[in-house]
């Protein structure tokens, strides 16, 4: 699907749920953070849909749209994860950068969540380290509304903005694109570890074996030719 078709699909989805249109940053350890009880409640009453390219977060209750918020999302170098996740943690006071509230997601390759910000001017931009940023008053409202266990669907492609080539990947990187590379290497018989989106030494070694067998420079870096060889781009 090209970018124009993807954006058109997003707009049609938005129209279908009667709305016009959260940014995510990697979360450092916060000693003073106040976690809440993580007992699951009526998690299926609510759902959240996030449209990164439209900078919009939509809340549905029993499949009916009840709220829509303007958000910020990840910078292209540190993209917001895409796919289906769950709210697994709710907390307060994660520090000024994260605003008054935090709703954590079960992303396997890092600590991502929906939170407030001390940079309200970033709302409407691709500006975070992957988290979903909201205005502080909005995230407080969302926090009170959404129970732990709520499904969060983040629209988009694992390889990021389709107008540009996918980013190069190397050991130490994390993300849905890393998970996709691991899955392809696993299907080809080179990777035997868990496809967790974390580019560790086991992924590097599997990639180097693949590169040698396909007469590519065995440098352990996923560059554009690797994406082509693995059938991820044309």
Describe the structure.
By secondary structure, the protein is α+β, with helices and mostly antiparallel strands. The protein folds into 2 domains: 3-154, L,D-transpeptidase catalytic domain-like, CATH 2.40.440; 176-229, no CATH class. Helix content is 24%, strand content 24%. It has 5 helices and 11 strands. It has helices at 3-16, 136-145, 176-187, 201-213, 224-229, and strands at residues 23-24, 34-35, 46-51, 56-61, 64-74, 83-92, 101-105, 112-115, 126-128, 131-134, 151-154. The chain has an 8-stranded mixed beta barrel. Strand 6 (83-92) and strand 7 form a beta hairpin. The termini are close together. Residues 17-41 have low confidence and may be disordered.
- Strand pairing plus helix content: what structural class? alpha+beta
Indicate the percent of residues in helices.
10-25%
- Overall pLDDT metric: 85
CATH class of the largest domain: Mainly Beta
Query: What is the string of SSEs from the N terminus onward?
Result: HEEEEEEEEEEHEHHH
CATH architecture of the largest domain: Beta Barrel
Number of domains: 2
pLDDT < 50 stretches = 17-41
CATH superfamily of the largest domain, called what? Answer: L,D-transpeptidase catalytic domain-like
Strand order of the largest sheet: 3-4-5-10-8-7-6-11
Distance between the termini: 12 Å
Which descriptors would you attach to this protein?
234 residues; alpha+beta; L,D-transpeptidase catalytic domain-like; 2 domains; eight-stranded mixed β-barrel
